[in-house]
Amino acid sequence: MSEVFLQNPAIDAPIVFVDLETTGGSTGEHRITEVGVVEVGPEGVSRWSTLVDPQQSIPPFIQQLTGITDAMVRGAPTFDAIAPALFERLDGKLFIAHNASFDRGFLRSEFRRAGLAFNPDVLCTVRLSRALFPAEKRHGLDALVERHALVPSDRHRALADADLLWQFWQRLHGLVSVDVLRTQIDRTLRRYRLAGDITEDLLDTAPAGCGVYAFYGEGDLPLYVGRSVRVRQRLRSHLTGERRSSKDLRLAQQVRRVEWLATGGELGAMLAEAQWIATLRPGQNRLPRVAKSDPVDAPWPFDGPIVFEERDEELQARAFHVVDRWRYVGHAPSLAQAASLHASSVAGSFELSTYRILQTHLARGLRVMPLGVSVNAGTASVA
Question: Coiled-coil stretches, from where to where (predicted)?
Fold first, then answer.
């Protein structure tokens, strides 16, 4: 077993230091030409590397930078050929790389093409270096080599650069206490392998704009309901963000499932959030206080259901929200679909939260119209 792994367990789990060489910087257009892995775990340290046939030409300036030529990769295995063995080598281990989003992004794309979902927890040594040595201005690999007396064997080759990261890791255990190192690792670690069925791929499908979301724990117990003008970004902040609060960290440890609903606007998100909280009664949300003066029912000031429109200019989306007798019915992308939504809905009881929110916005001049009025007929301001 590695002596450093035993005596300085800043991370008491297997880790892999990874570096790639590629034909360029775009995961959509370019391909991997070389993979280098240094694996450190209970069995000690092992090294592995291979050239990869990218099945496209390597630009001359990259050939000059890395020394990897078209002739060298001709006849090398394709990524598809090495994918199963490489995935097994990396799976379940902490993924450490320099500018890690680059290496992780390329591997994630290549594994996806091979039919494998790659979502490791990731530690970027650039971010870790910045966190541990904030007075230093440069944190590139060449700067680390110079600053920490690392010994390069063949710069810009995958295994040699991965080995530099392993050397850097060993130096850190002599420069920084284990407690400090653990603290900064916790702050800079990106956890992509989330609990339950939640993965980075799943978060990619969350709404980019306004919406509401709910977290569930063991036994599908509702934990928390929230809303955001950028749901996908907010979910990442809760579950994978580097600057999460202690409350977010505790919540993330309990989450097993997440669901969301795009609302097309902020007011719709407020109405949906309040409705979800009242229905789910999640443990980490404060339920709204009910005062003695609050009505248990209230007269509906309209002849029937009403609809109001919200537009997300950034996403170029429209949402028509339906409210009937102080109950939020939902929203649809057109008036015709909003009418169908109302027709298929089940009559519900008075919602105090909807009453409070809508009364406030009506007083501010929210423009509503009876459901069924055409767009060309205009809207009426209801006080």
Answer: none
Where do the domains of the chain lie, and which CATH numbers do they carry? 3-188 (3.30.420.10), 200-280 (3.40.1440.10), 306-381 (no CATH)
Are the C-beta atoms of residues 209 and 248 closer than 8 Å to each other?
no
Residue 197: exposure state from Cβ atoms within 10 A (0-12, 13-18, ≥19): exposed
Tokens of 308: 């109001």
Are residues 305 and 291 in contact, defined by beta-carbon separation less than 8 angstroms? no
Tens digits of per-residue pLDDT, 129-170?
999 999 999 999 999 999 999 999 888 899 999 999 999 999
> Which one from 30, 98, 139, 156 is the annotated catalytic residue?
156
Nearest in space to 272 (alpha carbons), one of 354, 378, 356: 354
69: Cα separation from own chain's centroid: 36
Do the bridges between strand 317-323 and strand 306-312 make them parallel or antiparallel, or are there none, so unpaired? antiparallel
CB 52 within 8 A of CB 78: yes
331 is catalytic: no
Nearest-angstrom CA–CA distance, 58 and 66: 10
The reported pLDDT for the residue numbered 314 is 72
Q: Tell me the CA distances in angstroms from 239 to 190, 217, 283, 328, one per residue in order.
A: 9, 13, 18, 29
What span, in angstroms and rounded, lies between the C-alpha atoms of 199 and 220?
Answer: 17
Which run of H or of E encompasses 352? Answer: helix 352-363
Q: What sections of 74-192 are H helices per DSSP? A: 79-90, 100-113, 125-132, 141-147, 158-175, 178-188
